[in-house]
Each structure stands twice: as structure tokens, then as C-alpha cells.
Write a structure and sequence with these properties.
The chain has 700 residues and is an alpha/beta fold. It folds into 4 domains: 126 residues, Beta-Lactamase (2-Layer Sandwich); 114 residues, PAS domain (Beta-Lactamase), CATH 3.30.450; 125 residues, Alpha-Beta Plaits; 249 residues, EAL domain (TIM Barrel, Alpha-Beta Barrel). The chain is built from 26 helices and 27 strands. The protein has an 8-stranded mixed beta barrel with strand order 19-20-22-23-24-25-26-27. Strands 1, 2, 3, 4, 5 and 6 form a 6-stranded mixed sheet that branches. The protein is flat.
Length: 700
């Protein structure tokens, strides 16, 4: 916009507005006082104010955030100087600042005197945003490429280098007397030709690859090459790709330093087949070698054997002396095992404290026995760890090919089963696999599988055994005892399955079910009018170590609405004595819930009197084994008397379990035992029978 517009102010709005309302630009007219006299429809759309709101008002009322540039340009136009294509930021009704292209020219009357200003405004916000985004994208892309560790260059169809990244430039500066010959402006193909002339074989192949990509013969080319010097070994991977994107042809060249990758490949090959600690073959290499041994034995109709070893008490040594000592022991064991076998045999480490010995050819079973005995003797020798003499031993399971298995997995599985039998029958011995072991293992797996579904199939149930106060003869409590109604084996007591529940981790879920069912049942008895009773639930080792035990019990009490005073938790003495400090804290948290606490099997563990005084215990339960010795064992009699007297001095009440005779009851009553339970009073019975017992007592 140049020159000036001659028009009377009176006719400006009526004459121009119909024409200007169709313009894509905002048109604004100002008088000499900078009051708005023209405001077209596009101005309304861009800035948000209507003509009715703006006409007659000062322009500055609507541009308080626009900055000094607007005032400066307006002042020039008022002085008669047109302004064209000025980029400004103008305010909208919503307070936003728009990027605009701003042009203005003076308005003059017929006499040529200035009467105002005519302004044309183009909203360029979107264009500016796109421009900024493009600049930022280019800057970001360049920063990314410069940050890459690869050496990257872009060349044109003639081989001239157009651009390189920082890694390329740094490499050129560090490795060339004339780095400019490898950077922008230089010809990369010429540089390759020079190196070819100097005898660098890869240079010729690389230049041919680049030309093949240029002419379209290849889409991509790569070359891996070594670059060794007297002081170091290096490997590189050069890659050539092309792109055009609709524009001129461009070739991208990258060089990756793959030295670490090459060295890692060698290390990985070692790691993949050998144990890093003992340098023995690992499971992968063992399976390969054992497979070869079995294939050879099959061809030549020979027998072979594997010995599966597991160190005895290794965890105790590792935990007490530390992992460094444990690692040292494993290395010593590996060396001794290698000394026990022939060169043709393989000693491998499976992991942890487990080892396998493969014997490729064993004409007689006695040959295997001799090696097993040799291993036991070698590992029985003392070991010096951290200045301390340590004795260890191993349990060995032996499986024979082809009698026990004809493939790798079968033989290892059979040897593993035999090893566990050796541990179960005393440790520090060897055990040959037998079919009986396999049958027992299958039975165990079937039992474990059934136990996993017992809860969802409602096969678990509770039986109840009364606890009687000797002084009054009243039933003061009841202990819940878990039973499993197995679909094939019938009603099973805990010894048949609890150890499986503990080993598999199912004990936490089963224990929670027992707690919830017992609490709900006790609450149901109370609501039916039966006398309130303390209900005792055993807590297993798994539950005791569970981080949310206290929270779980509190939730169950809340959900069943059972008052905590009617719930007693029974914990065996051995579980308490294993870790007295952490157990003491946990017992106090349980006690704070308001429940009672009892120690089960008291007298069989190793609780000291000092620790017993610290425990928030309400009841001590004398183990039934002591009652069986009454009348025949002076020790049992003395122990029972001592427990009762000690407990009464410390505060807890005493309950004896396993009472089966009148003599036992009388003895306990005579020496002040508070409560008893056992077959003499009642066997554990199902819920319905126990309810009948409670109702009979209430009726009498």
C-alpha cells in the first residue's frame, strides 16, 4: 500500500464498508485522534470485536498488549509516511497476541489534508507457526544427527560432500593431516580413489558400492572391515543408502565403530557356553555335549551315566560367611570335581550349587559307583574360607543311559529325582534312580495340582476340637483344624498336604481362607445364641513371613464383624525362635489388633527365658509328645511341671494338647495346668457335630 487515500470521513464508512466486508484482509480506519471509523467483517472475525463495539473508540483501547512498534508505525503514518508489510503482534478480544502483516496509508480529504489512516491487516499466525516449527525441526534434526556416534556424511550424485555430522568431522580432524579433504566441499569418491592407490583394498570395494547405489543397481551397500594398528584393534561397518524425496539424488554414508561389538561377540560366545565363576561348561554346553554322548552311545551300543550333584548346606555357608566366600567355595568344588574325572568326562555347572558330571562310557555300574565315592571323599575334605575351616558335602543322584532315559531332558530329570532322594535319606550320599521314585514324583505332582484347585472346588473344610478349662470343666475355646476332602483319596489331615502348600506358596491363600471361615463361623455361633468362644487358628511360616499378614487379619475381622477378643492366633515355637527380633515386632502389631496369641508345641523349640518374657503371649501350649511320656519318663514329667510353673510366673496361661487319658488330665489338673484339649474330651469334629455339642452344653 503506497500513497494516500482521498475521501471524506463522513462518507468513508457508508461508501467502503459494503465493498470491504468481502475482503479476506481486516480493514481498519482511524481518524486523526486515532478513533476507529472503519471496522470490516474480517476485522471482527480476526480480533473478536464487532464494528458496533469499536466504531468511535480509541484504537489504543483494544491494543494494550501490542508493544511499542505499533505506536511507532502509526505515528509515521499520521505524519504522512505510508508503512507496508510490517510484521507485528496484535491483541485479540481474548487477550491473545496474533502474528499479522500490517500495512497503513494516510487518509486525505479533497484538499489533500490528512484526516486519518487506513490500515490493512493479514493474519499470518499459522504461517509463522509453520515457519517456527520448520526451523525448530531442522535445528532438532541437526542436533540429533550431531549427537549420533556414527560418522555420517551426505554426498550428491557427483560424490561431493554436502554435509557431515560432528562425529565425522571430529574423526577427520583426529585421523587426517588434511581433514578438509573429508568434509564439506571435498569429493568423497576422489578420496576413496586416493586410498585405493595407497593399497587400501576396502577403498576400491567401497567406492564401487557407492557408485552402484548412485546408479540404482543397489538400494543399499554395506562393508565390514578391520582397521588394526600396532596398539589397538578396530572394526568398522560402512553403509551406503540413497534418498531423493522428490528432490535431487542424495547418498548417505555412515561409518559405525563396531570394535566393542566384535569384542562382545567373542565374550558372548564364552558366556553362552561357560560359567563365568567356575569356568565350567554351563547348561547350554552341557546339553550339547550330553546330546553328543548319547548319540555316540546309541551308535556304539554303550552305556553312559550322569551324576547330578547338589551341595549340602550351601545356603547356610553362603548366608553366614557371605557371597564372596560362597563363590570361592564353588570354585574349589569345581576344581575338585575336575580332579575326580577322566579327560573324556564333562563337569558342568547348572547354576547355584548344582553340578552335573557326564560319563560317556561306563561298561559296569561299579565304574559309576567308584567315581561317586571319589567325589564324596573329595568334597568331604575341609575348605579354608575367610580364615575359617568349613566342611561341606554333596548329595548325588545318578541316572543311566539307556535304562533310565534315552534323551538329555529325561536323564537330567531322573538324576535330579535321585539327588532329592539322597537328600531326603540323609545327605552326603549317592542314590541311583529307580522307577519307584518316578511314581512318587508323579503322585506328588498330582497331589500338588489337586491342591491348587482345592479352594475353588470347595474341597477344604474345617474341623473343630474343644478346649476345656480344668478348674470349671467348661469349654472356653475351640481350635480349628484343616481337612481336605480329596475326590479320590478321601478326607486328608494336614500332614498329607501342608508341606506341599508351604513349598508351592499356596499356604498364604489357604491360610487366609481358614482365618476368614473360622471368624465367620464364630460370629455365626454368637448370632445364633451360642456362648461366645475363643477360636484358635494356626499361623504357618509362610503366613508369618507375608508382608500383609496384619492387614489381612484386620480386614477379616472387620468383614466378619468378629470382635478381636474371640480370635487367637497360634504360632509354633520354632517359627518364633528363628528370628526373634522381627517376630517380636510382628507379634506386637498383631497384639495391637486385640487378638490373643499362643505359642504352639512349646518345649520343642529353643526359646530362651529372656526372649519369652518379651513376647506378648497369652497362652503356652505344651506339646503332646511330653504327655505321652507321663508315667514312663521322668524327663517329660519334670518338663511339664517346669513349663507350667514358668508360665504362671511370667503371666501366660497354659494349655496342654493331646490329652488322651484320665491319668494325664488328673496330672495336669494337679499341677495347675489351666486348659486342655485332646481325644479324652473330643476328637476334631465337623461343624455340624460341634454345633450339637455346643447346644447340648447350653441346654444343660
Amino acid at each position: 500500500m503506497t500513497g494516500s487515500v482521498t475521501l471524506s470521513l463522513a462518507g468513508l464508512h457508508s461508501a467502503l464498508l459494503p465493498l470491504l466486508d468481502g475482503w479476506p484482509l481486516a480493514v481498519v480506519g482511524l481518524d486523526l485522534d486515532e478513533k476507529i471509523i472503519l471496522w470490516n467483517r474480517t476485522a471482527e472475525q480476526i480480533f473478536g470485536w464487532t464494528a458496533a463495539e469499536t466504531i468511535g473508540r480509541f484504537h489504543s483501547d483494544f491494543q494494550k498488549k501490542s508493544g511499542p512498534s505499533l505506536r511507532r508505525y502509526l505515528k509515521r503514518v499520521m505524519a504522512g509516511e505510508s508503512q507496508a508489510n510490517k510484521e507485528l503482534r496484535l491483541q485479540t478480544r481474548q487477550g491473545q497476541l496474533l502474528d499479522v502483516n500490517w500495512s497503513a496509508t494516510p487518509l486525505r480529504d479533497n484538499a489533500g489534508e490528512p484526516v486519518g489512516v487506513l490500515i490493512l491487516i493479514d493474519d499470518i499466525t499459522i504461517r509463522k507457526q509453520l515457519e517456527c516449527a520448520q526451523v525448530e525441526s531442522e535445528r532438532f534434526s541437526r542436533a540429533i544427527v550431531d549427537a549420533l556416534p556414527q560418522h555420517i556424511a551426505i554426498i550428491d550424485e557427483t560424490g561431493s560432500i554436502i554435509a557431515v555430522n560432528k562425529a565425522w568431522r571430529d574423526f577427520a580432524r583426529a585421523n587426517s593431516e588434511h581433514p578438509e579433504e573429508l568434509c564439506e566441499g571435498a569429493n568423497y569418491l576422489d578420496a576413496c580413489d586416493v586410498q585405493e592407490g595407497e593399497g587400501v583394498q576396502e577403498a576400491e570395494a567401497y567406492a564401487q558400492g557407492i557408485r552402484a547405489v548412485m546408479n540404482g543397481t543397489l538400494i543399499e551397500f554395506s562393508l565390514e572391515y578391520a582397521c588394526h594398528s600396532p596398539i589397538s584393534q578396530c572394526w568398522f561397518n560402512g553403509r551406503v543408502t540413497r534418498f531423493s524425496g522428490g528432490g535431487p539424488l542424495r547418498i548417505v554414508i555412515t561409518h559405525d565403530n563396531i570394535t566393542e561389538l566384535k569384542l562382545a561377540e567373542k565374550a558372548i560366545q564364552q558366556l553362552a557356553q561357560y560359567d563365568t565363576l567356575t569356568r565350567l561348561p554351563n547348561r547350554m554346553l552341557l546339553q550339547d555335549r550330553l546330546g553328543q554322548v548319547l548319540a555316540k552311545a546309541k551308535r556304539e551300543r554303550q552305556r553312559a551315566a550322569i551324576l547330578f550333584l547338589d551341595l549340602d548346606r550351601f545356603k547356610l555357608i553362603n548366608d553366614s560367611l557371605g557371597h564372596a566366600a560362597g563363590d570361592n567355595l564353588l570354585k574349589i568344588v569345581a576344581a575338585r570335581l575336575n580332579d575326580c574325572v577322566r579327560k573324556s568326562d564333562t563337569v558342568a555347572r547348572l547354576g547355584g550349587d548344582e553340578f552335573i558330571i557326564v560319563l560317556p562310557s561306563v561298561p559296569q555300574t561299579e565304574d559309576v559307583t567308584l567315581i561317586a565315592q571319589k567325589v564324596l571323599q573329595a568334597l568331604a575334605r575341609p575348605v579354608d574360607l575367610e580364615g575359617q575351616e568349613v566342611f561341606t558335602s554333596t548329595s548325588i543322584g545318578i541316572a543311566m543311559y539307556p535304562a533310565d532315559g534315552r534323551d538329555v531332558d529325561s536323564l537330567i530329570r531322573c538324576a535330579d529325582m535321585a539327588m532329592y532322594r539322597a537328600k531326603e535319606t540323609g545327605r552326603n550320599k549317592y542314590q541311583f534312580f529307580s522307577e519307584e521314585m518316578n511314581q512318587q514324583m508323579m503322585q506328588r505332582l498330582a497331589m500338588e495340582n489337586g491342591l491348587r484347585h482345592a479352594l475353588e472346588r470347595n474341597e477344604l473344610q474345617l474341623h473343630f476340637q474343644e478346649q476345656t478349662e480344668l478348674a470349671s470343666g467348661k469349654i472356653t475355646g475351640v481350635e480349628v483344624l484343616l481337612r481336605w476332602q480329596h475326590p479320590e483319596l478321601g478326607l486328608l489331615a494336614p500332614p498329607a498336604f501342608i508341606h506341599l502348600a508351604e513349598e508351592t506358596g499356596l499356604m498364604v491363600a489357604i491360610g487366609e481362607w481358614v482365618l476368614r471361615t473360622a471368624c465367620a463361623q464364630n460370629r455365626s455361633w454368637q448370632e445364633s445364641g451360642l456362648p461366645p468362644l475363643r477360636i484358635t487358628v494356626n499361623i504357618s511360616g509362610r503366613q508369618l513371613n507375608h508382608s500383609r499378614l496384619v492387614e489381612t487379619i484386620a480386614r477379616i475381622l472387620d468383614e466378619t464383624e468378629l470382635s478381636p477378643q474371640w480370635l487367637e492366633l497360634e504360632i509354633t515355637e520354632n517359627l518364633i525362635s528363628n528370628n526373634i527380633e522381627s517376630t517380636l515386632e510382628l507379634l506386637q502389631q498383631l497384639k495391637n489388633l486385640g487378638v490373643s496369641l499362643a505359642i504352639d508345641d512349646f518345649g520343642t523349640g529353643f526359646s530362651s527365658l529372656k526372649n519369652l518374657k518379651r513376647l506378648p503371649i497369652d497362652r503356652l501350649k505344651i506339646d503332646h509328645s511330653f504327655l505321652q511320656g507321663l508315667g514312663s519318663s521322668e524327663d517329660s514329667t519334670a518338663i511339664i511341671k517346669t513349663i507350667i510353673g514358668m508360665a504362671h510366673n511370667l503371666g501366660p496361661r497354659v494349655i496342654a494338647e493331646g490329652v488322651e487319658t484320665n491319668q494325664q488330665r488328673d496330672f495336669l489338673q494337679e499341677h495347675g495346668c489351666d486348659e486342655v484339649q485332646g481325644y479324652y474330651f473330643s476328637r476334631p469334629v465337623p461343624h455340624d457335630e460341634f454345633c450339637k455339642l455346643l447346644r447340648t452344653i447350653r441346654a444343660t
